[in-house]
Amino acid sequence: MIHQDFRSTQYHLDSTTNEERARIEASLAKLTPAHRGVIVMRSQERMSFEEIARTINRSPDAARMLWKRALLRLRQELGESDDRS
Fold it and tell me: Strand, helix or coil at 5?
């Protein structure tokens, strides 16, 4: 199951300001459910790619690729260049 509502997940954005947090949440809301879900599973729930793969019925390599594409899209939404790693 892909997590449809990222707001239900407790964020660990302690080092960000409220303004930055709101900007990230707004950018996450613009992503597809699959992209938002894989970011939540990997970043907030700390799931391995193997766990994500089982959850979304894909291979670990496909889960990893989805995560990479989701991060790229999030960076685009945030207006950041994709050369940051």
Answer: coil
Model pLDDT for residues 49-64, shown as the tens digit of each residue: 999 999 999 999 999 9
CA distance 41 to 6: 10
Identify residue 81 by its one-letter amino acid code.
Answer: S
**Distance, CA of 49 to CA of 7 (rounded, Å):** 22
In order of their start, the domains of the chain are 32-80 (1.10.10)
Task: Enter the DSSP assignment of 10.
Answer: P
Token readout for 46 is 């700390």
pLDDT above 80 (res 45): yes
